[in-house]
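Design request, tokens follow.
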């Protein structure tokens, strides 16, 4: 019999991830703060729970995929949280992006109740969640990673055990430094191409497969050219992650000058009411500084 899976958090990433688990044949129980988001999965055969504690009571492995560190704490340790329904021997997997220190604290609290824990944040955007090609970075015990592997394999393609509790989140923050730094470089390159008058689509085709190629360039560059700001990952969520990056960097004394500057660019876009747009809208901050709009004939 496959293990019973619980899934908490059916947002832009979580709903696709949970759907893959259900289609793979695992018994699935779901909960989301906005209950209407459960309806599609329930129609496909999932059970709807009344709270995170109710999910835990019906599950052997409980996955959380929520917005921020306070949300992780609330659904895991708060009133009606997982800890109030979970049974000894269960495994809790947090696939949110959250504070590494908070993950270590949560793991220790659960361990005192006989419950295992992994932090397993993800990368790949909504596209990766929909296609089950996510990168998954895992912190925790090797035996627990092995237990969870059949579930990870229906959601992701690159699955890496990177260390002990909290290490998954640390590596995810490394990922986010690279994501935003690359997006800034893509933005500057496209603005230069626009100002120079070359064909933008041919420019992307020419550079995407060479040394400058990247996931961000191939997936977000075309969106920028179309002025398509639909989010694979929103500016507001990107800012949440960058706050975690800068807090963690402060703790270890790592200077992140470029990342700090990008944080301020995103803050300016949030102040302009653009927080719900995709994080590739970073280019708008640079466009506004130079008066050049990519994709415009002006």
């Amino acid at each position: 019999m496959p293990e019973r899976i619980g899934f908490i958090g059916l947002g832009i990433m979580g709903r696709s991830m949970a759907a893959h688990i259900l289609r793979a044949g695992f018994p699935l129980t779901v909960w989301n703060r906005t209950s209407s988001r459960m309806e599609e999965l329930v129609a496909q055969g999932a059970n709807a729970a009344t709270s995170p504690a109710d999910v835990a009571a019906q599950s052997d492995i409980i996955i959380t995929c929520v917005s921020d560190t306070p949300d992780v704490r609330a659904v895991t340790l708060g009133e009606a949280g997982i800890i109030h329904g979970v049974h000894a021997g269960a495994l809790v997997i947090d696939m949110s992006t959250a504070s590494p220190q908070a993950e270590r604290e949560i793991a220790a609290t659960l361990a005192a109740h006989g419950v295992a824990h992994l932090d397993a944040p993800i990368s790949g955007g909504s596209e990766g969640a929909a296609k089950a090609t996510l990168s998954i970075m895992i912190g925790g015990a090797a035996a627990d990673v092995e237990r969870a592997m059949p579930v990870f394999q229906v959601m992701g393609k690159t699955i890496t055990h990177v260390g002990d509790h909290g290490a998954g989140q640390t590596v995810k923050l490394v990922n986010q430094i690279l994501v935003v730094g690359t997006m800034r470089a893509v933005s500057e390159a496209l603005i230069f191409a626009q100002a120079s008058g070359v064909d933008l689509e041919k420019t992307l085709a020419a550079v995407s497969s060479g040394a400058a190629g990247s996931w961000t360039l191939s997936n977000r560059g075309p969106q920028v050219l179309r002025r398509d700001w639909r989010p694979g990952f929103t500016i507001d969520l990107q800012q949440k992650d960058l706050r975690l990056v800068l807090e963690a960097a402060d703790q270890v004394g790592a200077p992140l000058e470029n990342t700090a500057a990008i944080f301020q660019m995103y803050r300016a876009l949030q102040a302009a009411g653009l927080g719900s747009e995709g994080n590739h809208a970073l280019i708008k901050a640079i466009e506004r500084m130079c008066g050049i709009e990519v994709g415009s004939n002006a």
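Comment from the thread starter after seeing the answer: thanks! Residues 91 and 147 are 9 Å apart (CA to CA).
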